[in-house]
Amino acid sequence: MSVSKRSHARPARGRLKAAAFYDLDGTLADLNLLHGTAFVMANLAEWSGRIRYLVSLTASLPRLYMAERRDRRVLNVMLFELYKGISRDRLEQLGEEYCERILMNHMYERGLGIIEANRAAGMMPVLVTGSPDFIVAPLARRLGIEHYAANRLVFSRGRATGRMHEPVMAGADKAIWCASFAAGHRIDLTDCWGYADSYYDLPFLGALGHPVAVNPDRRLLAAARDRQWPVIHLRERGAAADAMRDGWAAISPPRRASNGAPGE
């Protein structure tokens, strides 16, 4: 199990009783995996390198589209192959730039509110995403999130090989990672919350006691309705505050009282 730890998290009062696991792309942010890859390809140092990588990305789009419809793991593997030859330092630099210039501006405000409400209720926030770690790490720092699981490139002599470390954060591997994380932190998965947008995240959501479908695609929406899971749409910007407040009990655990016990 690979867990990256940061020192910027703001722990809730009292002992953390469980975790809240969050997918990123499409769930907390109005972006997908391709956005980050396109940003990297379009911002490499040398113009000739940019052209070569962008041509490679463009040529791969039909295959990426088919992979996204067929198997999210295959999509991740194909996207990471495009990073072959790029230096680790440059990827980390571009990850910081992408996070600052693009990603932070596409985070759903209500999604960030859910993270903070869960944190106040004693829920440890954990990102579980197929995005690359050189993008997720700076995001986690900015959000004060200590733990995350993200996809990681294999490097050789400081340059990306285009291969990925296992586990690949997609499908059932997300659920397996969450189970390992919970065991290592003595947390019961039945007490944990999970937030995701894609049908491919069904094993991930199904492994948790409190799954929430966020901005769900058609198939996840049908599955969520069949299982009577809460469904929320963060894309509905400007929703009335009282509507959010009325539905809060369905998507977030109760706040802790001042003595550390769950509030009524």
Which assembly state applies to the chains in this document?
Answer: single chain
Unreliable stretches: 1-14, 237-252, 254-264
Reported CATH architecture of the domain at 18-30 and 106-251: 3-Layer(aba) Sandwich
Largest sheet: 6 strands, parallel
Order of helices and strands: EHHHHHEHEEEHEHEHEH
Q: How would you name the CATH homologous superfamily of the domain at 18-30 and 106-251?
A: HAD superfamily/HAD-like
CATH class of the domain at 18-30 and 106-251: Alpha Beta
Strand-residue fraction? 15-25%
Number of strands: 8
User: What separation lies between the terminal Cα atoms?
Assistant: 36 Å
Q: What is the residue-averaged pLDDT?
A: 81
Describe the protein's architecture and organization.
The protein is globular and about 50 Å long. It has a domain at 18-30 and 106-251: Rossmann fold, CATH 3.40.50. It has a six-stranded parallel sheet with strand order 3-2-1-6-7-8, sandwiched between helices. The chain has ten helices and eight strands. The protein has helices spanning 33-42, 47-70, 72-81, 88-101, 109-120, 133-143, 172-184, 202-206, 218-227, 241-251, and strands spanning 18-22, 123-132, 147-151, 153-156, 159-164, 193-196, 210-214, 231-232. By secondary structure, the chain is an alpha/beta fold. The chain starts with 17 loop residues before the first strand and ends in a 13-residue tail after the last helix. Strand 2 (123-132), helix 6 (133-143) and strand 3 form a beta-alpha-beta unit. Helix 2 packs antiparallel against helix 3.
